[in-house]
């Protein structure tokens, strides 16, 4: 797996494919495929259809008289592979280079599995059951390799995970002084820290202070370097958009909200923050 991460020659094809994926006009469907509405990536949910169907087909291929049911399951898996692949490409297009390399091999492996299963289905329809079953077991083996690569992406390279999940653990309870009111110009993002956690602080035109965890939940982008637009901050790395008042993610690729902090100003102008409760 680590050897795949080091294949720099994959960066060229990855750049080309990334631009193609980004230019496809999807509108709000793009965020839907990312899983913004679900609160975490949609791709792991969708892959259950082809994996489940093909695994079940392999079991039925071992049972005499279940050829028709196995054939139907192979077809279901092929149909389910299309939306799963589409959601995966949308996620992949906003990943770091080393993640992109593994993701590209992951996608190529899964494409090979789909091709083998398509041949398996064709053989089954032609009455060549033995060949169809053999191709089915081959396709499942390749899909398993692809799934292993996907697991490496998620669990080793942290693609698709919430990078702000640790904030409530790292911030000590209570109020943290972060400066005085004059340190926060209206409409300008300012970086401060609460203990070990970096914060983004923005003072709006009404004088209200809003504070969020600074590192984007998508891939740790520095939100304080982003733009403030219509009460939201836009991550400078991949364009995720978070509402300043409560940290809700308005637009992906981030699927998890940003941890939000309460702000208070004392009579002498001192500004303090504490982690907002749910």
How many E-type strands?
Answer: 10
Mean pLDDT across all residues, rounded?
95
Shape: elongated
What profile does the largest beta sheet have? 6 strands, antiparallel
Instruction: For the record, give the distance between the C-alpha atoms at the N and C termini, rounded to a whole number.
Output: 39 Å
- The residue fraction in helices comes out at 40-55%
Number of domains: 2
Proportion of residues in β-strands: 15-25%
Could you give the order of the helices and strands? HHHHHHHHHEEEEEEEEEE
- Quickly count the helices: 9
Class by SSE composition:
alpha+beta
**Gyration radius over CA:** 24 Å
Question: What this model shows, in words?
Answer:
- With about 280 residues, the protein is α+β, with helices and mostly antiparallel strands.
- It folds into 2 domains: about 1-155; about 165-275, 3-layer Sandwich (Rieske Iron-sulfur Protein).
- It has 9 helices and 10 strands.
- It has helices at about 1-5, 10-25, 30-35, 45, 50-60, 65-90, 95-125, 130-155, 165-170, and strands at about 175-180, 190-195, 195-205, 210-215, 225-230, 230-235, 240-245, 250, 260-265, 270-275.
- It is elongated.
- The mean pLDDT is about 95.
Outline the fold blueprint:
Elements: H1 2-5, H2 11-23, H3 29-34, H4 43-46, H5 48-61, H6 67-92, H7 97-125, H8 129-156, H9 167-170, E1 176-180, E2 190-194, E3 197-203, E4 209-213, E5 227-229, E6 232-234, E7 241-243, E8 249-251, E9 260-265, E10 270-275
Helix pairs in contact: 5-6, 5-8, 6-7, 7-8
């Amino acid at each position: 797996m680590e050897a795949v991460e080091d294949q720099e020659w994959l960066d060229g094809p990855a750049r080309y494919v990334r631009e193609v994926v980004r230019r496809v006009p999807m509108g709000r469907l793009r965020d839907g495929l990312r899983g913004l509405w679900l609160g975490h990536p949609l791709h792991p949910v969708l892959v259950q259809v082809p994996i489940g169907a093909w695994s079940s087909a392999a079991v039925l291929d071992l049972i005499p008289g279940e050829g028709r049911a196995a054939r139907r399951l192979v077809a279901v898996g092929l149909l389910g592979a299309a939306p799963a692949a589409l959601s995966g490409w949308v996620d992949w297009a906003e990943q770091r280079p080393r993640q992109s390399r593994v993701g590209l091999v992951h996608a190529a492996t899964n494409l090979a599995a789909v091709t083998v299963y398509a041949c398996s289905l064709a053989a089954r329809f032609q009455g060549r059951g033995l060949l169809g079953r053999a191709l089915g077991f081959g396709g499942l083996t390749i899909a398993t390799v692809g799934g292993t690569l996907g697991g490496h992406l998620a669990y080793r390279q942290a693609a698709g995970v919430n990078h702000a999940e640790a904030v409530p653990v790292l911030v000590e309870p209570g109020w943290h002084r972060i400066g005085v009111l004059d340190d926060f110009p209206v409409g300008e993002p300012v970086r401060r820290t609460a203990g070990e956690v970096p914060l983004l602080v923005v003072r709006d035109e009404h004088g209200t202070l809003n504070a969020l965890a600074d590192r984007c939940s998508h891939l740790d982008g520095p939100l304080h370097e982003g733009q403030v637009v219509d009460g939201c901050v836009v991550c400078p790395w991949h364009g995720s958009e978070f509402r300043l008042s409560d940290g809700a993610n308005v637009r992906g690729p981030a699927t998890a909200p940003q941890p939000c902090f309460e702000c208070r100003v004392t009579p002498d102008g001192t500004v303090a923050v504490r982690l907002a409760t749910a």
